[in-house]
Amino acid sequence: MTNQLFARKPLSLLLEEMKGENRLRRVLGPVQLTALGIGAVIGAGIFVVTGEAANQTAGPALMLSYGVAGIACVFAALCYAEFASMVPVAGSAYTYAYATLGELFAWIIGWDLVLEYAVGAATVASGWSSYFKQVIHPLVGDVPDAIARAPMVYDSMVGKVVSTGSVIDLFAVLIVAVVTAVLVKGIAESASFNATMVFVKVAAVLFVILVGSFYVNPENWTPFAPYGMTGINFFGTHVSGQMDPGGRPIGMLAGAAIIFFAYIGFDSVSTHAEEAKRPQRDVPIGIVASLIICTILYIAVVAVLTGMVPYQQIDRSSGVSSAFQHAGLPWAEVIIASAGVAGITSVLLVMMLSAPRVFLAMSRDGMLPPSFFGAVHPRFRTPWKSTILVGLFVAALSGFLPLGYLLSLTNIGTLLAFVIVCAAVLIMRKKHPEAERPFRCPMVPLVPILGILSCLLLMFSLPAANWWRLGVWLLIGFVIYFLYSRRHSVMARLARAGP
């Protein structure tokens, strides 16, 4: 049993599977892949997360927080790009872990990725609903309370779930249904829709930067780091920096751990390697280009935001649009809110596009029932059954549950995935130095080691409760693995077949 838990899927088997008939359609070029990456990254990070992080955690030093998080992502991105060029199949970090660290680690990371994309998508759908209500308010007025929000929310000030008096967040459920239908229809249509949304929101972000720069008051950047430059916990035990009254670490590094949600999605480019026209070249371009573009835009927006409004006065829920209202430009609020709708729509699309492809890779390995999770639509060539399942799950989360309580799971889960991918590059260089690598991560072992250390540092900057929630999710995954996956996996079948 122990041997199977750490059995690695041979690289030769992965490459052989690429030749099968039940594959996805290769229609994505480097521009579309880069747009998918930008589509996943730019959105909630600017329109939702930035205001609260600047106000509560980092102040103007949030500019450095985005830089630190971006650097950690660059290290991981280079490692992702090497793997994506070697094995251009669906599955992303799950596939890479199976080939390097063994079956149990592969299951952990696959289960972890599903959590990342599903909970992240649900959170984004909730944010989309808030911005959409802001856009339609001049036309229809206030939305009835019964359909305005989820019936429960997590109040961080009191540390518990409270009732809102609502029944369902109807708009969140409706946008999830629309995106699910688009995704079932086909990847080419999804990519084209996403490219349109990306154009709209990048134009709006540039508008924020260019127009807002005329209203920046440099005095608002003083003090630059009112909460300090650190804010580090170690498994919930305070190590360095300040803490708020609730015991939460605050400071520049703590801000980087919290806004890491803003970067989630660039890794989703690698889940579409099987749909890339020339994956060995196009996927690395898409990963690295989207990450660099997004990091520059993030830092510029935070500089403008904290320069326009003192950090204590930044609105926690709609920081960007309220900053323009504070500057006497209320007309810009409608433009920014509309761009927020477009921007968050593309994030939702990419996250919901990625989760079914992780399921698809896991089902091909026997980890999940292939008749359902591995079903590819004969006409659209999309994993349609798992796409619908993910849509139902995301709709339920966004429509009914207190997502603020679950959001931090997305951060810690993604950081864990990055650590494993960086470690996997080191292992593959040692185990398979002869393997063809159309794209090679530079400065190995330095870059993977820096990726591991930087991601662990951010993980340790998260509150202890996040570690407990991650543990519960992984425990559920272990139950499924030992009851089903261990007996049905491709490595178990090979072991039974013998030499």
Task: Please give a structural write-up.
This protein is mainly alpha-helical. The protein has a single domain (2-497), classed as Up-down Bundle (Amino acid/polyamine transporter I). The protein has helices at residues 2-5, 11-17, 30-41, 44-58, 62-86, 93-100, 103-140, 170-185, 187-212, 252-259, 268-271, 279-308, 319-326, 331-364, 370-373, 384-400, 403-431, 446-460, 464-488, 490-497, and strands at 152-155, 160-163, 232-234, 237-240, 242-243, 249-250. A hairpin with a 5-residue loop joins strand 5 and strand 6 (249-250). The radius of gyration is 22 Å and the shape is globular. It starts with a helix and ends with a helix. 55% of the residues are buried.
SSE topology:
Layout: H1 2-5, H2 11-17, H3 30-41, H4 44-58, H5 62-86, H6 93-100, H7 103-140, E1 152-155, E2 160-163, H8 170-185, H9 187-212, E3 232-234, E4 237-240, E5 242-243, E6 249-250, H10 252-259, H11 268-271, H12 279-308, H13 319-326, H14 331-364, H15 370-373, H16 384-400, H17 403-431, H18 446-460, H19 464-488, H20 490-497
Antiparallel strand pairs: 1-2, 3-4, 5-6
Helix pairs in contact: 3-9, 3-12, 3-14, 4-10, 4-12, 5-10, 5-12, 5-17, 5-18, 6-7, 6-17, 7-8, 7-14, 7-16, 7-17, 7-19, 8-14, 8-16, 9-12, 9-14, 13-14, 14-16, 17-18, 17-19
Oligomeric state of shown chains: single chain
Number of helices: 20
Rg, nearest Å: 22 Å
Main sheet: strands, sense, barrel: 2 strands, antiparallel
Low-pLDDT sequence parts: none
Helical residue percent? 55-70%
User: What would you give as the CATH superfamily?
Assistant: Amino acid/polyamine transporter I
Cα separation of the termini: 17 Å
Any idea what the CATH architecture is?
Up-down Bundle
- Sheet-strand content, in percent, reads under 5%
Which CATH C-level class is it?
Mainly Alpha
Mean pLDDT: 82
Under CATH, the topology can be stated as: Amino acid/polyamine transporter I
How do the strands line up in the largest sheet? 1-2
